[in-house]
Amino acid sequence: MSQIPAVLVTGASTGIGATYAERFAQRGHDLVLVARDVARMEAVASRLRQETGVTVDILQADLTQAADLAKVETRLRDDAHIGILINNAGTAMGGTFVQQSTDDMARLVALNTTALVRLASAIAPRLAVAGEGAIVNIGSVVGLAPEYGMTVYGATKAFVLFLSQGLSLELGPKGVYVQAVLPATTRTEIWDHVGADVNAMKNVMEVGDLVDAALVGFDRREVVTIPPLPDAGQWDAFDLARKTMMANFGNALPGERYRNPA
Ligand SMILES: NC(=O)c1ccc[n+]([C@@H]2O[C@H](COP(=O)([O-])OP(=O)(O)OC[C@H]3O[C@@H](n4cnc5c(N)ncnc54)[C@H](OP(=O)(O)O)[C@@H]3O)[C@@H](O)[C@H]2O)c1
Q1: What is the C-alpha to C-alpha distance for residues 128 and 176, in angstroms, rounded to an integer?
Q2: Which residues pair with 31 in a beta bridge?
Q3: Model confidence over 236-253: pLDDT tens digits?
Q4: In a domain, 253, yes or no
Q5: Around Cβ 117, how many Cβ atoms within 10 Å?
Q6: 3-state secondary structure of 4
Q7: CATH at residue 206
Q8: Is 167 in the pocket of ligand 1 (CB under 6 A)?
C-alpha cells in the first residue's frame, strides 16, 4: 500500500458517499467511485480531479446484481493501492412491513447487507496481511430504534452495526481499523426514495456536517460514531449494559422464571 492509500467509496454519485469522496480527495487520497449513475460520478470525478489533482476512477455497478458486485470485489481484492473502503451505498423504502413488497425488501437487504459484507470480505484479508487500512460501514441510528417504524431498513442497519463491532474485534488487533457510522436524518436524496419531504422535517443534519463529524471519529479511531449524539457517555452506558448482561449468558439451566413459571 502506498503512503496515501486510495479510497473506494460505494454510493459515490450523490449524498453521503459523494461527500466522503470530496473530503478524501481534499486529503490527497486517490479515489474509486462506485454507483450506478455514471454521468453523476463523472461530474463528481472531473470536479475533484480539477480541484484536488487526485486520480479518480469510476466503476459502474448495481450492487444488487451479482456480476456487478463481483467486479467491485475483484477490484478490492487485487488493487493494492486501495487501503480504505467506505461501504456507504444503501437505500431505504417507505411504508410499513405489510405494505412493502417482498421483492423490494429482498433488494433492500441485498444492497444494505449482502453487498456490504461481500465488499468487506473482499478487502479484509488483504488489509489484514498488510497490517493496515480501514473499513467504514455506514449504518443508521434507525438500527438502534425499532420504534422509528422502519423495520426492514432498521434491521439491515442493526446488521451493519453488529458486523462492524465484530470486525473491529477481529481485525483491530491485525492493524485494520473498522468504523460504524450511524447518521440520523441527513439532507440527501434518500428521503425522495422513501417518499418523504426532507425539507419539511425538523432537526435535519447537513451532509457536510455529517461527514466531517464522521471523519473526526475516523481520525480518533472510534469504533462507533454517532454524529448527532451530544453525549458520548450515553453510547458507553448502552454498550456497558450489553456487556454486563453478557456475563449472565453462560448458564446451563434456564432462568428461574422459566423453570418455575407462575
Ligand atoms: N440520509 C440519511 O438521512 C441517512 C441516515 C442514516 C443512514 N443513511 C445511510 O447513508 C448511506 C448513504 O445514503 P444517502 O443518504 O447518501 O442516500 P442517497 O443520497 O440516496 O445516495 C445513495 C447512494 O447509493 C447509490 N446506490 C443506490 N442503490 C445502489 C445500487 N443498487 N448499487 C450501487 N449503488 C447504489 C446511489 O447511486 P446510484 O443511484 O447512482 O446507484 C447513491 O450514490 C446509506 O447507507 C443510508 O442508509 C442515510
Answers
A1: 6
A2: 7, 56
A3: 999 999 999 999 999 999
A4: no
A5: 15
A6: coil
A7: 3.40.50.720
A8: no
